[in-house]
């Protein structure tokens, strides 16, 4: 994507805005962009895929159990608990393993 305005210029412009209506339009645009990114990320995955993610200072690898509207449920083996546990993770934080 080609952006004519630098991010710094855009942030400076937002900081000097005095209209609440304009700020709400920007917030709506950002939220919409995040939702589109999450949908696109979610579409890359299927139940049974092996995925990895980082959480609580560790690297986790597991299998997708369920794909929900906003998140993905991943079953991983927890060595400290010596049992399988389920994590609910945003699809944007998952990496598909081959």
Task: Record keyword descriptors for this entry.
single chain; 98 residues; alpha+beta; five-stranded antiparallel sheet
Q: Which spans of ≥5 residues are poorly predicted at pLDDT below 50? A: none
Order of SSEs, N→C? HHEEEEE
The count of helical stretches stands at 2
Strand order in the sheet with the most strands: 4-3-2-1-5
Question: Sheet bearing the most strands, described?
Answer: 5 strands, antiparallel
Describe the secondary-structure layout.
Layout: H1 7-15, H2 20-43, E1 50-55, E2 58-67, E3 72-78, E4 83-89, E5 95-96
Antiparallel strand pairs: 1-2, 1-5, 2-3, 3-4
Structure, briefly:
The protein has 98 residues and is α+β, with helices and mostly antiparallel strands. It has helices at residues 7-15, 20-43; strands at 50-55, 58-67, 72-78, 83-89, 95-96.
Describe the structure.
The chain has 98 residues and is of the alpha+beta class. The chain is 34% helix and 33% strand. The chain contains 2 helices and 5 strands; from the N terminus they run H-H-E-E-E-E-E. The chain has helices spanning 7-15, 20-43; strands spanning 50-55, 58-67, 72-78, 83-89, 95-96. A 5-stranded antiparallel β-sheet has the order 4-3-2-1-5, with no helix packed on it. A hairpin with a 4-residue loop joins strand 2 and strand 3 (72-78). The protein is elongated. It starts with 6 loop residues before the first helix and ends with a strand. The mean pLDDT is 90.
């Amino acid at each position: 994507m080609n952006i004519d305005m630098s991010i710094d210029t855009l942030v400076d412009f937002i900081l000097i805005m005095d209209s609440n209506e304009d700020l709400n339009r920007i917030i709506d645009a950002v939220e919409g962009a995040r939702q589109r990114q999450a949908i696109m990320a979610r579409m890359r995955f299927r139940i049974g895929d092996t995925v990895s993610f980082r959480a609580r200072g560790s690297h986790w690898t597991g299998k997708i159990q369920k794909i929900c509207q906003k998140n993905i449920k991943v079953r991983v083996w927890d060595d400290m608990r010596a049992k399988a546990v389920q994590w609910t993770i945003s699809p944007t934080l998952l990496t598909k393993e081959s």
